[in-house]
Amino acid sequence: MTSPPNTLISTRDLQVGFAIRKGPFSKGLLKAVDGISIDIPKGAFLGVVGESGSGKTTLGRALLQAVPVTGGSATYDDGEVRYDLGQLKGAALKEYRSRAQLIFQDPYAALSPRMTVRDIIAEPLEVMGLTKSRAETDARVREVAATCRLNLEHLRRFPHAFSGGQRQRISIARALVCGPRFVIADEAVAALDVSIQADILNLLKQLQRDLGITFLFISHDLSVVAHTCDHVAVMYLGRIVESAPTRALFRAPRHPYTRALFSAIPSLDPDDRGRAQVLSGEIPSPTNQPSGCTFHPRCPFATERCKREAPQAEKGADGHMVSCHHWRELAAAPDAIRQAEPAE
Ligand code: SF4
Q1: pLDDT at 335
Q2: Keywords for this entry (predicted)?
């Protein structure tokens, strides 16, 4: 399968597994990412959603080469360089790190309390040797601090003097200072107040527009994803079960798991109370995945076929992809999800 033109990151059957000890004499394999094929266009704002344990963070880390890829392939091609991510080592890996960066979730834990804001932002430049003099480093730090709407007078202060939103802007400045083309924001606004979240999301969107940066936005907050991302991928147990342009996905979700996630979005309408479909049970262990469709033990529409046979990804001309044997029947009966709810 070839990638469309203008693709920055492309994965094919990407797998990340971790060997684990199950007992004194047996070993197992934890499949955190299990066969992901996706193309991320240049300049896109791709959201990745799913429950805790669905593999969102591991997917992001695999694309940064922070965890080893154990199967399949992942490539990065920004027009200047092309890397096979599974093969990156030494100088090439260091060079890739200047092109692909990460914004952490917790702006309180992500910044060293012993370093000034100037030193925090300058550190990646110095570690990667991207500037030749202190004056050049300072000029770049001031430029990126201004882009992230930081007060230049504050560069000599320490992180404890700042609020959560200001600290997250410092984290973003540190991620941007090397001029990356690809940035992974892993729950980047989850630890912030709602009003501060909007400020940080606006900044990320502005960076996408002005600098052409491609974002992978990992989040469990569907409202944030709906308002920020151009395209959304839904993950369950290490796989992408549905992906589509944001508007199409939120208007007409096809996979029962996506429908259940969306039905759980809190509404301000008091008449909407009780609409949420509660998924029964926990997400299964990635060390012992169910047969067939891995969602079948929790799916209200599971059939014998679902227990036996894993569904293949079906992608339409509109870019809407879904992995479910019965999505067409469910799309023809949009209220089916409510009928399947257990009676109170
Ligand atoms: Fe549910 Fe079957 Fe579709 Fe899986 S394939 S989501 S079990 S209906």
Answers
A1: 59
A2: ATP-binding, Nucleotide-binding, Transport
